[in-house]
Design brief:
Blueprint: H1 9-20, H2 26-29, H3 37-49
Helix pairs in contact: 1-3
Protein name: F-box domain-containing protein
Length: about 60
């Protein structure tokens, strides 16, 4: 059986980049970071740099 983590790091980085390039919400887009520690360590910077967050005020001044 083959494992995602056995793929070359360059290929995994390309896959991470494709995952965060989707039009999904940030929470869905970043969910893969919770799969395991190694994926999180490898991909968090790619994911956060490619994600735009929208913050709305609940109670405007």
């Amino acid at each position: 059986m083959s494992s995602f983590l056995e793929l070359p790091g360059e290929l995994r980085n390309h896959i991470y980049t494709k995952l965060v390039a989707t039009n999904r919400s940030a929470s869905k887009k970043l969910a893969f970071l919770l799969t395991c520690r190694q994926v999180h360590q490898e991909a968090w910077r790619i994911a956060w740099e490619a994600t735009t967050f929208e913050i709305n005020q609940l109670h405007p001044p």
